[in-house]
């Protein structure tokens, strides 16, 4: 299927590895020019080189910096001639007990997982509307639908973003101008973050890391972890010309792990 995206420009955040990189790769395969961001210069430049090799016909720009700061956002936006597609992404805050989190911990979580996406949306959606095309995909978490007790910082910040997007996506001056805003909710994906989380859990429980991973896999109906490539493919479709009637939605991608009907 031709997604109708050739020649568009995308800003993909936290794209040096993991799910962000999967999204950037999928878009590049569709002929989308990308500006990718991440804090680590070395990993980012390596990803940029891989993306250029994947499709030499597109432009790939890499901007190392902290997207949660005004300076980092300004540099990323300046490197992207126009933002037709915005993929918001940032690592989640650490797990823990809410009794140990002070105001600074909460502000850091909100900055990364709620306020930064909102600032980037504010900087781009009006231009999208003027051009008559725009796609915003926020990578949030399956914990938005089924909160995880030790991830309270993430539960709170990402749920706040979800509520904000639900209202904004339904504004006719955006939806009526072919600008969509949706959230993509990952479950357990084979990424560095998942491996680190399982290693920490294994150390705490006394289990071997592989045993911990096996138990986690067995709890997923698909009996496996997701891949960054298939996550990116779903993201690319949500950004496509065919997805103009999809807006304000939370798309859960978790191998069937969520047990609810709605």
From TrEMBL:
<dbReference type="Pfam" id="PF13561">
    <property type="entry name" value="adh_short_C2"/>
</dbReference>
<dbReference type="InterPro" id="IPR036291">
    <property type="entry name" value="NAD(P)-bd_dom_sf"/>
</dbReference>
<dbReference type="InterPro" id="IPR002347">
    <property type="entry name" value="SDR_fam"/>
</dbReference>
<dbReference type="InterPro" id="IPR050259">
    <property type="entry name" value="SDR"/>
</dbReference>
<comment type="similarity">
    <text>Belongs to the short-chain dehydrogenases/reductases (SDR) family.</text>
</comment>
<protein>
    <submittedName>
        <fullName>SDR family oxidoreductase</fullName>
    </submittedName>
</protein>
């Amino acid at each position: 299927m031709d997604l109708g995206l050739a020649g568009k420009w995308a800003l993909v955040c936290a794209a040096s590895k993991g799910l962000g990189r999967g999204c950037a790769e999928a878009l590049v395969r569709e002929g989308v020019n990308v500006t990718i961001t991440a804090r680590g210069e070395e990993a980012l430049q390596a990803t940029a080189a891989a993306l250029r090799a994947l499709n030499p016909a597109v432009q790939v720009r890499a901007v190392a910096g902290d997207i949660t700061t005004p300076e980092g956002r300004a540099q990323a936006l300046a490197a992207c001639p126009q933002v037709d597609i915005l993929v918001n992404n940032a690592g989640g805050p650490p797990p823990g007990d809410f009794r140990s989190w002070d105001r600074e911990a909460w502000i850091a979580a909100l900055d990364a997982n709620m306020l930064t996406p909102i600032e980037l949306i504010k900087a781009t959606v009006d231009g999208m509307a003027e051009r008559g095309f725009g796609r915003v995909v926020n990578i949030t978490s399956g914990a938005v639908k089924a909160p995880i007790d030790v991830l309270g910082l993430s539960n709170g910040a990402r749920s706040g973003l979800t509520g904000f997007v639900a209202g904004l996506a339904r504004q006719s001056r955006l939806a009526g101008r072919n600008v969509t805003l949706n959230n993509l909710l990952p479950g357990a994906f084979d990424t560095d973050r998942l491996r680190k989380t399982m290693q920490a859990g294994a150390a705490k429980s006394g289990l071997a890391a592989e045993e911990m991973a096996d138990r986690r896999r067995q709890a997923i109906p698909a009996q496996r972890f997701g891949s960054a490539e298939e996550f990116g493919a779903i993201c690319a479709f949500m950004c496509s010309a065919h997805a103009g009637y999809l807006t304000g939605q939370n798309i859960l991608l978790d191998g069937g792990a969520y047990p609810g009907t709605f």
